[in-house]
Design brief:
By secondary structure, the protein is an alpha+beta fold. It contains three helices and three strands. Strands 1-2-3 form a three-stranded antiparallel beta sheet, with no helix packed on it. A hairpin with a 2-residue loop joins β1 (9-14) and β2 (17-25). It is globular and about 35 Å long. It comes from Mycolicibacterium sarraceniae.
């Protein structure tokens, strides 16, 4: 996360090749739906993390925009 904040250009390796994107941090007020979708998908594996840090401000969320 610190690296993405310092240099928001990221390269993701996918099955179809490398994809270059710019990461933009999502405002805290807009994180809840993203975090909830993540919790549903990840299941109880992540419940402990959210029990310790229930505030969305404690969980950085980034939007990836293709470059």
């Amino acid at each position: 996360m610190r690296n993405v904040r310092a240099n928001p250009v990221v390269i993701l390796d996918t099955k179809v090749g490398a994809v270059r994107s710019t990461a933009a941090e999502v405002p805290v007020a807009d994180r809840e739906p993203v975090l909830e979708a993540y919790r549903v998908k990840a299941g109880r594996t992540v419940n402990g993390y959210f029990a310790k840090l229930p505030d969305p401000a404690g969980h950085p969320v980034f939007r990836l925009d293709p470059v």
